[in-house]
Amino acid sequence: MTTTPQGQAPRQQRAAALLVLASFALCSLLVLLSGCGAPGTSKSAVTYYDFRNLAAGNTATLPTDVWLTTSTNHGASFGNETHIAGSFDMLIAPFAGGFFVGDYEALTTIGTTFEPFFVQTNDDNTSNRTDVFTAFI
User: Fold this and answer.
1) In angstroms, how far is CA 34 from the centroid of its own chain?
2) What residue ranges in 1-137 does DSSP mark as E strands?
3) N or C terminus of the chain: which is more exposed, having fewer CB within 10 Å?
4) Is the pLDDT of residue 122 over 60?
5) 114 falls in which pLDDT band (50, 70, 90)?
6) What is the reported pLDDT for 9?
7) Residue ranges of domains in the chain
């Protein structure tokens, strides 16, 4: 069994990462009230990390993507998933009881455009493992 410097097997670290991500619910929620960016409506969006690109049997990497989904009915339902970034390898993130991409996550608007701020790893750059990025959706 291969172990990491933290002394855990990669599969154990991956499970720890999933637990940390789930427990901290790494997502940003923004509700736009009527007249704020989308006059006459209440539009909301959620950003989140997703592991859907993890292939069965892959224990070498943890491909992670950033997504945004929107609601136009006050959050009663969400749809219109938009891929923001990724895949990046979550296993490169610093290990702090789980893989930690930081707490600099936000979601704002400019007019009716959502602008998420999110953290992802810098693949193969162990001296600067993560950075903050933004996008306009």
Assistant:
1) 27
2) 27-32, 43-50, 63-71, 79-89, 106-110, 113-121, 130-134
3) N
4) yes
5) confident
6) 52
7) 10-134
Q: Is the pLDDT of residue 17 over 70?
A: no
Residues facing 134 on adjacent strands: 117
Which neighbouring-strand residues pair with 118? 133
DSSP state letter for 5: T
* Best CA proximity match to 75, nearest among 106, 42, 105: 42
Given a cut of 70, is residue 48 above it in pLDDT?
yes
pLDDT at 16 over 60: no
State whether the Cα torsion 124-128-130-136 is positive or negative. Answer: negative
Sole residue written with tokens 């970034």: 85
Higher pLDDT, 32 or 62: 62
The pLDDT, as a whole number, for residue 115 is 87
User: Are the C-beta atoms of 90 and 17 separated by less than 8 Å?
Assistant: yes
The strand pairing partners of 60, in sequence order, are none
* Token duo for residue 53: 């690109």
| Tokens describing residue 55 | 């292939």
> Contact 84/136 with Cβ under 8 angstroms?
no
| Helical spans, DSSP H, in the chain | 10-24
